[in-house]
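Input record, target 12 of the design panel.
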C-alpha cells in the first residue's frame, strides 16, 4: 500500500550529501588527483608572439591615370583581416615558413617529424592503410599532357603539417595589429619560429599583391617584342625600297591622287592607332572585369566620373557600416539597410565597369571596321595611282606602315611603363612592430587553472554522484521511508551496536541508546492497541540476518522488566537461535511439544538473571516445519499458554524465504516486521506487508534495526540522528553524580 510522497526540502538534500559524503569526497579527490597528475606530467608548451602592424591607409593599391594623377584603392578592414587569417592557415604559407626557416635541415624539427611519424596512432593508421591497399590496390590511370599544369610540390608535407598545427593568429583586437603566435615545447624555438613566420607573412603578402602587375608586365613585354620586330621589319623594307628604286623624296602636292592616297594612308594610320589603343583599353578592362578587387587598378575605369562617384559612395557606406557595427548588431534593420545599399553600390560599380567594357568593345570593333574600310580604300586608291606614280604609292605605303608600327609600339611602351610603375609602388603596408622574445613560462598546461577547474568539477561531480547513489539506493534508510511509503507505523529504530556487544542489550540497569530504542518499541506496542490487549506477538523479518531474533529477545526482556509475565517462543523451526541468546539447553523445545500434543516438562525454561521471563526454545529440528506449524496442535498449545502469561513473543522465520510466518500470523494478535536499515529493499518490505495483509494478519508496525547513527548532528534522519548523544548524556550525568558525592563525603 503506497502513500503519496512528502515534499522534499533542501535539508533532505543536505542530509543525503552528509550521508554520502565519502562518495562525494572520493570523486573530488579523484578529479583533483588525476588532473594534477595530468597537468604535471604533460610536456610544457611555450608560445612565441610577434605583433604585426597593418597600415591599411598605405596598404591600398596605387595606380596612375592617364593624366598622371594617383588613384588609391582602399580595402575593407574586416574583409582584409579575414583574408589574412585564411592566408596564414593555408598550406602554401606554412610551406613558405618551412622553406624560409630551412626546417628540412633543422635537427630539432627532423627529430620531431620522426617522433610524429613513429607515433602509435600513425603506425596503426599506416598499417591499416597498407593492409587495405594490399587487399584493394588502387587503380592507377596513366594520363599524359598534364605535366605542365601540376602545382609546385611542398618541400616536406610532414613539416608543413607541424607548422600548421603550431601557428595561430589573432586579428581585430587591437585595431590594425595582427598577433601571430607560435607554440612549441622549446621556448627558443617558439620565439624563433614566430619571428620567421612573421617575416614569411610579410614576403607572402607582398608577393600576392604584386603578382597581378607582374603578369601584366610579362604580357605587355611579350607584345612589345612582337611590335618591335614589326617596326624593324617595316623600316628595313622602306629603306630597301628607297635604295632599290633610287628614291629620295616625293612632292605629294604635285599630284592630287598621290595627295589623296597620302591622306588615306594618314587616316589609316590614325585609325590603326585608335584601334590599337582601343584594343589595349578593351583587353585591360576585360582582364579585370571578373576581379572586382582589381577594377580600380585600371586607369580608364578610375577616370570614369560615375565610378569615382560610386567609389566615394562605397567608401562612405563602408565607413558608415563600420561605425554602426559598434552600436548595432549584424541583424539590425539599419545595418541590413546599409549593407543592402553597399551591395547595390558595388553592383552599380560592376555594372558601370561592364558598360565601359561594352563601350570599349564597340569602340574597338568600330576602329577595326574603320581600319578595314580604310585599307580597302587605300588598295583602291593604289590601283588608281599605279599607272601614274607606282613608285610614290609604294613608298608612301611602306612609310605609313612603318609609322603605324611605331605609334603602336609607343602605346604599348607607355602602358608597360604604367604597369611597371604600379607594381613597383605596391610597397608592403605590414611591418613587425613587436618581434617575439623567448617566453619565460609555458602557456600549457595551465596547472592552477586546471586544478581550480578540477576542484569545481570534482565538487559538482561528487554531489551528483552522491545524489545518484542515493537515488539508486532502494533500501529502507530510516523511519521516514516507512512513514512515507507504507500504511504501516514505524514502531522504532534500533541503532547499530559495536562489535562484541549483544545480543541481549536490555538489562535491569542498562542505559544506552539501544536499550532506549527497545523500550520505545515496547511502548509503541503497548499503545498500539489500548482496548484489545496484544498477548501474542509475532516477530518476523524479510530476509535472514536482519535481527528478528535479537529484537524478539530484547523486546521480551524489556516487557519482563516492566513487571509482565512474558514467554518467548522460538518458532523458527529451521534455524533455532533463541537458546544461544540466553545460553539455554535445547533438548526439549516447541517442536517436541507440537509432536507430543502438549506441554512437556522442562520445555519452559527460566531466562538466567531475568525475572518474569520464560523461554521455550526450538527443540528438535523438524523435517517438515510448515506442516507442523499448520497443525492444530500448535494453535492449541498457544491457546493454552495465553492464560498463563501476560505476553507471548514468537520468533518466526523470514517472510520472503518461507511461508511459516504467514501461517503463524493467524494465531497471533499482531505481527512486527524487522528490517535492516540500508540493506533491506523497499520492494521486499512492500511484498512482505502485502503478504501479511492478504492473509488478514494484523500489522503492528515495522522495526528498523541496525540503524547507522552518525556522530555529526544533522547527518541522520530527523530526531534519530541524536542517538549518538544518548550515551554521552548518561555518562556525563553519572560523572556529575559521582563527583558530587565524592566531593561531599570527602569534606
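The sequence produced for target 12 reads:
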Amino acid at each position: 500500500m503506497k502513500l503519496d510522497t512528502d515534499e522534499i526540502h533542501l535539508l533532505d538534500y543536505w542530509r543525503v550529501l552528509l550521508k554520502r559524503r565519502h562518495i562525494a569526497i572520493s570523486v573530488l579527490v579523484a578529479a583533483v588527483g588525476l588532473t594534477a597528475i595530468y597537468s604535471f606530467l604533460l610536456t610544457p608548451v611555450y608560445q612565441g608572439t610577434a605583433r604585426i602592424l597593418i597600415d591599411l591607409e598605405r596598404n591600398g593599391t596605387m595606380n596612375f591615370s592617364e593624366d598622371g594623377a594617383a588613384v588609391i584603392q582602399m580595402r575593407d578592414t574586416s574583409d582584409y583581416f579575414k583574408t589574412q587569417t585564411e592566408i596564414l592557415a593555408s598550406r602554401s604559407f606554412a610551406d613558405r615558413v618551412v622553406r624560409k626557416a630551412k626546417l628540412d635541415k633543422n635537427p630539432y624539427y627532423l627529430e620531431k617529424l620522426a617522433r610524429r611519424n613513429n607515433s602509435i596512432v600513425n603506425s596503426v593508421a599506416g598499417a591499416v592503410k597498407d593492409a587495405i591497399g594490399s587487399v584493394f590496390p588502387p587503380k592507377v590511370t596513366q594520363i599524359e599532357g598534364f605535366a605542365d599544369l601540376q602545382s609546385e610540390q611542398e618541400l616536406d608535407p610532414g613539416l608543413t603539417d607541424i607548422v600548421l598545427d603550431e601557428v595561430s593568429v589573432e586579428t581585430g583586437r587591437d585595431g590594425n595589429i595582427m598577433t601571430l603566435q607560435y607554440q612549441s615545447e622549446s621556448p627558443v624555438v617558439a620565439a624563433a619560429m614566430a619571428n620567421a613566420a612573421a617575416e614569411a607573412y610579410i614576403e607572402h603578402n607582398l608577393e600576392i599583391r604584386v603578382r597581378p602587375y607582374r603578369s601584366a608586365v610579362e604580357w605587355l613585354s611579350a607584345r612589345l617584342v612582337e611590335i618591335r620586330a614589326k617596326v624593324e621589319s617595316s623600316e628595313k623594307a622602306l629603306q630597301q625600297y628607297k635604295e632599290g628604286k633610287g628614291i629620295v623624296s616625293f612632292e605629294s602636292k604635285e599630284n592630287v591622287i598621290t595627295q589623296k592616297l597620302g591622306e588615306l594612308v594618314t587616316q589609316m594610320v590614325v585609325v590603326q592607332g585608335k584601334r590599337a589603343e582601343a584594343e589595349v583599353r578593351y583587353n585591360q578592362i576585360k582582364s579585370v572585369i571578373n576581379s572586382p578587387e582589381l577594377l580600380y587598378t585600371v586607369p580608364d575605369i578610375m577616370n570614369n566620373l560615375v565610378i569615382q562617384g560610386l567609389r566615394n559612395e562605397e567608401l562612405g557606406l563602408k565607413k558608415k557600416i563600420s561605425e554602426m557595427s559598434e552600436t548595432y548588431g549584424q541583424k539590425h534593420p539599419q545595418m541590413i539597410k546599409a549593407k543592402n545599399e553597399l551591395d547595390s553600390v558595388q553592383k552599380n560599380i560592376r555594372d558601370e565597369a561592364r558598360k565601359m567594357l561594352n563601350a570599349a568593345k564597340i569602340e574597338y570593333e568600330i576602329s577595326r571596321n574603320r581600319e578595314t574600310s580604310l585599307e580597302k580604300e587605300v588598295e583602291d586608291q593604289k590601283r588608281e595611282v599605279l599607272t601614274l606614280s607606282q613608285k610614290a604609292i609604294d613608298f608612301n605605303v611602306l612609310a605609313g606602315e612603318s609609322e603605324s608600327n611605331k605609334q603602336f609600339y609607343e602605346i604599348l611602351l607607355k602602358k608597360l611603363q604604367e604597369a611597371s610603375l604600379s607594381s613597383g609602388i605596391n610597397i608592403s603596408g605590414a611591418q613587425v612592430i613587436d618581434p617575439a622574445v623567448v617566453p619565460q613560462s609555458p602557456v600549457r598546461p595551465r596547472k592552477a587553472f586546471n586544478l581550480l577547474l578540477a576542484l569545481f568539477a570534482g565538487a559538482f561531480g561528487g554531489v551528483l554522484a552522491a545524489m545518484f547513489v542515493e537515488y539508486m539506493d532502494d533500501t529502507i534508510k530510516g523511519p521516514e521511508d516507512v512513514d512515507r511509503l507504507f500504511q504501516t507505523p514505524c514502531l522504532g529504530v534500533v541503532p547499530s551496536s559495536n562489535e562484541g556487544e549483544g545480543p541481549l542489550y536490555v538489562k535491569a540497569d542498562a542505559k544506552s541508546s539501544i536499550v532506549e530504542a527497545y523500550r520505545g518499541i515496547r511502548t509503541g506496542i503497548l499503545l498500539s492497541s489500548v482496548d484489545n490487549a496484544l498477548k501474542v506477538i509475532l516477530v518476523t523479518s524479510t530476509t535472514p540476518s536482519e535481527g528478528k531474533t535479537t529484537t524478539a529477545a530484547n523486546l521480551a526482556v524489556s516487557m519482563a522488566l516492566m513487571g509482565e509475565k512474558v514467554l518467548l517462543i522460538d518458532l523458527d523451526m529451521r534455524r533455532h537461535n533463541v537458546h544461544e541468546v540466553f545460553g539455554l539447553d535445547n533438548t526439549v523445545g516447541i517442536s517436541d511439544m507440537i509432536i507430543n500434543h502438549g506441554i512437556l516438562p522442562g520445555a519452559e525454561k527460566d531466562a538466567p538473571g531475568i525475572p518474569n521471563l520464560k523461554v521455550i526454545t526450538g527443540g528438535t529440528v523438524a523435517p517438515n516445519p510448515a506442516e507442523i506449524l499448520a497443525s492444530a496442535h500448535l494453535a492449541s498449545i498457544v491457546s493454552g499458554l495465553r492464560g498463563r502469561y501476560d505476553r507471548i513473543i514468537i520468533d518466526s522465520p523470514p517472510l520472503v524465504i518461507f511461508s511459516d510466518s504467514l501461517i503463524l500470523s493467524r494465531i497471533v494478535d499482531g505481527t512486527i516486521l524487522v528490517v535492516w536499515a540500508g540493506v533491506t529493499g523497499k520492494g521486499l518490505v512492500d511484498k512482505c506487508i502485502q503478504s501479511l495483509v492478504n492473509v488478514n494478519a494484523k500489522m503492528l508496525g515495522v522495526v528498523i534495526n541496525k540503524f547507522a547513527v552518525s556522530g555529526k548532528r544533522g547527518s541522520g534522519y530527523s530526531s534519530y540522528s541524536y542517538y549518538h548523544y544518548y550515551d554521552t548524556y548518561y555518562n556525563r550525568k553519572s560523572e556529575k553524580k559521582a563527583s558530587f558525592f565524592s566531593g561531599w563525603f570527602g569534606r
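The chain has 23 helices and 14 strands.
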